[in-house]
Design a protein that fits this description.
Layout (H helix, E strand, L loop, with lengths): L1 H15 L12 H12 L4 H11 L4 H25 L5 H9 L2 H33 L5 H18 L1 H32 L20 H11 L19 H30 L11 H47 L6 H4 L10 H14 L4 H30 L5 H22 L4 H21 L14
């Protein structure tokens, strides 16, 4: 009875601001943490460890520490806003309601570049590893297989995806436990690699400067992107005001500890970054510390985890952002994107669209895609931090000592850190990212008749 009462209250709250409760509300704190972990991916260092190590000359662990700190302040801003606006749509919905509908649309448009590209990168990574494992099957075939599986599961419903998430998370954690155990034996018992503890993965005198960290962190931060995807599930969560914020912070701290631990042990086991294969470095180190069995186990788990499980949860978030923007009539073909399947209670049209886009984008070079993802995410993160200040301090006038700390100081620190990392992006990335943003601004201009009126879906409910 209590559960039904809670659901009814949440449904009435959504209807009060102009929406309907169309999505199935079944997710709990555990489901969100699992979803968050898989979105960020516990074994994410396998994707970029080699490139980060070479670019930072062996300081990958330091970069992961900086990345976690950078994300923590923004995660606190997401947590604060999710408690105030428990609605699906992530950065789009938060900025829209905290600042104004037009800025919110632009924010949603910018974050779409992140959400649309990430699944393509993930299936590309998985396909690359799968084709190395089974050369007779081309990478593009694996891309099609992975996308078909993800789209089918997401179309069937959030509960199906949640069950698949649990299985994959267990496999990834088992894989990490094996690697950590064998790496500890390799380094501290067998005396190989550096043969013991060292602070070199964190700091090497004369090698660390602010520009160096900013540039390297733009790559490593890719591993942390996705924790905000939890907020896209707000309308499918029980008691979202409390659950979402807590799950965001929990996810980020857990994933940070896993990244730092894995990269630290990998660096101790193989300190010479110069001979690393950028694509397969972490797997090669796994073979070094645990033999062929660990290598193949790690590769197989990574293929399934990245190519299917990780891509699955990111597609889930992406589809819901597109659904939210379509429901607000802010995109071309909005009615199409806003439709919910009557049986599965999922945004099926948005889900299928994401699958098709993933297929085409997966054919593009991964290097530039990585940078574009960082541009979209970091730009939206800056707007999220600004939103906390504008909404609570300026609009609601919450200006006591506690409020200044929570709504001014913390988001300001988050904004400065993200701006600093954002400055490390390359020139080509800024050109492409700003071009994408301008397209969004023009689209918003047309939809709002020159930003003079608030069209259907832009109104502040």
């Amino acid at each position: 009875m209590e559960k039904n009462t809670i659901s009814m209250t949440e449904s009435q709250e959504i209807e009060k601001i102009g929406y309907k409760q169309e999505l199935r509300r079944t997710l709990k704190f555990r489901d969100l943490v699992i979803f968050g972990l898989l979105t960020v991916l516990p074994i994410a260092p396998v994707q970029v460890y080699g490139a980060v190590s070479q670019q930072t000359m062996g300081l990958a662990t330091l970069v992961y520490v900086v990345g976690m700190v950078a994300m923590l302040f923004t995660a606190l801003s997401y947590s604060t806003l999710s408690g105030e606006f428990p609605l699906t749509g992530s950065a789009y919905m938060f900025v829209r309601r905290a600042i104004n509908p037009h800025v919110g649309f632009v924010s949603g448009w910018i974050i779409l570049i992140d959400y649309i590209i990430v699944p393509s990168l993930l299936v590309s990574f998985g396909a690359l590893w799968a084709s190395n494992l089974i050369p007779s099957i081309p990478a593009y075939v694996w891309v099609i297989i992975f996308i078909a599986i993800c789209t089918f599961i997401n179309g069937r419903g959030i509960n199906v995806a949640a069950k698949a998430n649990i299985i994959m998370l267990i496999l990834e954690l088992i894989c990490i436990v094996f690697f950590v155990t064998m790496a500890i034996k390799f380094i501290f018992i067998d005396g190989r690699g550096v043969g013991g503890f060292s602070i070199d993965p964190f700091y090497i005198p004369g090698q660390v400067n602010l520009g160096f960290i900013a540039s390297a962190t733009t790559i490593a931060i890719f591993g942390y992107l996705g924790f905000d995807g939890i907020t896209a599930l707000a309308e499918e969560v029980e008691n979202p005001r409390k659950t979402i914020g807590k799950s965001i912070i929990t996810t980020l701290l857990l994933i940070g500890a896993l990244f730092i631990g894995q990269s630290y042990l990998a660096t101790l086991a193989h300190p010479d970054y110069s001979d690393l294969n950028p694509d397969m470095a972490f797997f090669d180190i796994a073979r070094e510390v645990g033999g062929a069995s660990l290598y193949y186990f790690f590769v197989i788990v990574a293929i399934v985890a990245v190519g299917i499980a990780n891509a699955l949860v990111v597609q889930t978030s992406t589809a819901r952002v597109i659904f939210s923007m379509g429901r607000d009539n802010t995109l071309p073909m909005s009615k199409f994107f806003a439709k919910v399947h009557p049986k599965f209670q999922t945004p099926l049209n948005a889900t299928i669209t994401v699958g098709v886009l993933t297929l085409f984008i997966a054919l593009a070079p991964p290097t530039i895609l990585l940078q574009l993802v960082s541009f979209g995410a970091l730009t939206s993160f800056m707007l999220i931090n600004v939103s906390v200040f504008v909404y609570f301090y300026v609009r609601k006038k919450e200006r006591g000592p506690k409020s200044i700390f929570k709504y001014v100081l913390l988001p300001l620190i988050g904004l400065i850190i993200i701006l600093y990392v954002w400055s490390g992006l390359g020139k080509a990335t800024f050109i492409l990212g700003i071009s994408w943003s301008v397209i969004g601004i023009i689209l918003g201009f047309v939809k709002s008749k020159g930003y003079k009126i608030i069209p259907s879906g832009f109104e502040e409910n």
